[in-house]
Design brief:
The chain has five helices and four strands; from the N terminus they run E-H-E-H-E-E-H-H-H. By secondary structure, the protein is α/β, with parallel strands linked by helices. The longest helix has 18 residues, at 121-138.
Length: 139
């Protein structure tokens, strides 16, 4: 199962990537997408803001962006981009540890890749319920 965690842009030392990967592999297997390639990429807020502006039209940073790769290579599912700075700021509000926050954001991004969204209240309620259940099951 190809799961790539890339922090080459900012070299995160505060997150144990082995533990993160172990959790995400369990989630991916549970969702039955283990034959798909998923890339988790950590960025700083400046680069996240650029991505968000380019693809969403929003001129601000965000915590997580997901991009489904829809092309000739059916083994590729997509990319999940995480702003580590935004994740740290989320921790101040949520009182989560950084590793917990990052796991939740990765799960959130993966759920977007398989088609879940939160554009309205009902969708959001369903998506966040699944996200929380997956985190609790595989943390």
């Amino acid at each position: 199962m190809p799961l790539l965690i890339d922090d080459s842009n900012i070299k995160i030392k505060s997150i144990n990537k082995t533990i993160l990967k172990r959790t995400l592999i369990k989630v991916i297997k549970y969702l039955k997408i283990e034959k798909k390639e998923i890339n988790i990429v950590f960025l700083n807020d400046v680069n996240m803001k650029k991505l968000n502006k380019k693809y969403s039209g929003s001129n601000k940073s965000t915590d997580v962006l997901s991009f489904l790769i829809d092309g000739h290579d059916k083994s590729l599912l997509g990319d999940v981009f995480i702003s580590i700075e935004y994740a740290r700021a989320n921790c101040l509000v949520s009182k989560n540890s950084l590793i917990k926050e990052v796991k939740i954001l990765c799960i959130h991004g993966i759920l977007h890749l398989i088609g879940l969204d939160h554009k309205n209240e009902a969708e959001g309620k369903r998506m966040f319920k699944i996200q929380d259940e997956l985190y609790e099951k595989f943390k």
